[in-house]
């Protein structure tokens, strides 16, 4: 414990120079700009946050440039022992602790590791009960030819099943999602939905019967028909009887 306290005091006692502070701020701004322009941000937040992220990144870079180019004030680099600048009036700039370097870690993780979108690991740990799905903002048109295969979102399929399933009876549909498993050897076509960011993600899944299960996290298009009586509100996941399963690449936007 004494060693930990000593390290904490050394980290808190050090300071960063103004150019270093500017470089850190520029780095964080560049991370935000890169995420927004590459669509990698869709792994973490909803699409509408692209422009706020981009603007925030640009502002950080501009502030960093101003910080680096501003005339040097010795009072910015030295404290008077109580966290204030040398001015003595309590309004100077205090030292910035070396622990600020930890701000680099999220950026390095994003650039070097590039975490993937949420997948089966989380879905299989949030699958004890199928969430009640709110009424979708839009619906797939199932009024066409009975032989026409209609793409339907996983959440819409679950909502229709929870409403009784009559609109799905004898209608071939196509569901797209990634593969997740259960403990009994079954598998599901699964999608994640987020309200704001990945931290509040909810998993939605439809059980697939009549087809061999692919590898975990493999994205698939499943064609089939709804099995009557499954997926009612509070009764677990609905079931699709598959007639075809085709492996596919993950879409740019993986969340519904």
Question: Can you lay out the helices and strands and say which pair or pack?
Answer:
Layout (H helix, E strand, L loop, with lengths): L1 H12 L4 H21 L11 H20 L34 H10 L6 H4 L26 E2 L2 H9 L10 E9 L5 E7 L8 E8 L9 E8 L12 E10 L8
Helix pairs in contact: 2-3, 2-4
Describe the largest sheet: 5 strands, mixed, barrel
> CATH fold name of the largest domain, please?
OB fold (Dihydrolipoamide Acetyltransferase, E2P)
Number of helical segments with 4 or more residues: 6
Named CATH architecture of the largest domain: Beta Barrel
Describe the global form: elongated
Strand content: 15-25%
Poorly predicted regions are 9-13, 79-93
Using only C-alpha atoms, the radius of gyration works out to 26 Å
Q: Identify the strand order in the major beta sheet.
A: 2-3-4-6-5
Distance between the termini: 47 Å
Helix content: 25-40%
CATH class division of the largest domain: Mainly Beta
| Number of domains as seen in the coordinates | 2
Q: Output the helix-strand order.
A: HHHHHEHEEEEE
Give the number of DSSP strands. Answer: 6
Which structural class do the helices and strands define?
Answer: alpha/beta
> What does the average pLDDT come to?
80
Structural overview:
By secondary structure, the protein is an alpha/beta fold. The protein is built from six helices and six strands, in the order αααααβαβββββ. It has helices at residues 2-13, 18-38, 50-69, 104-113, 120-123, 154-162; strands at 150-151, 173-181, 187-193, 202-209, 219-226, 239-248. The longest helix is centred in the first third of the chain and has 21 residues, at 18-38. Mean pLDDT is 80; it is low at 9-13 and 79-93.
């Amino acid at each position: 414990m004494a060693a930990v306290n000593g390290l904490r005091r050394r980290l808190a006692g050090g300071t960063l120079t103004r150019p270093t502070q500017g470089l850190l701020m520029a780095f964080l701004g560049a991370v935000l700009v890169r995420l927004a322009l590459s669509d990698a941000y869709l792994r973490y937040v909803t699409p509408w946050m692209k422009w706020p992220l981009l603007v925030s990144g640009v502002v950080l870079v501009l502030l960093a440039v101003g910080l680096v180019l501003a005339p040097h004030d010795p009072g910015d680099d030295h404290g008077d022992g109580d966290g204030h600048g040398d001015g003595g009036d309590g309004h100077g700039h205090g030292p910035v602790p070396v622990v600020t370097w930890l701000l680099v870690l999220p950026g390095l993780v994003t650039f070097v590791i590039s975490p993937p979108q949420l997948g089966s690991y989380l879905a299989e740990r949030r699958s004890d009960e199928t969430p009640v799905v709110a009424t979708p903002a839009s619906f797939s048109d199932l009024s066409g030819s009975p032989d026409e295969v209609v793409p339907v979102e996983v959440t819409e399929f679950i909502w229709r099943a929870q409403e009784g399933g009559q609109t799905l009876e004898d209608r071939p549909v196509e569901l797209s999602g990634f593969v997740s498993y259960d403990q009994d050897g079954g598998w599901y076509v699964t999608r994640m939905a987020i309200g704001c960011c990945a931290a509040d993600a909810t998993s939605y899944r439809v059980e697939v019967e009549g087809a061999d299960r692919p590898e975990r996290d493999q994205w698939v298009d499943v064609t089939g028909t709804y099995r009557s009586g499954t997926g009612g509100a509070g009764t677990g996941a609905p079931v699709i009887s598959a007639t075809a399963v085709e492996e596919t690449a993950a879409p740019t936007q993986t969340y519904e």
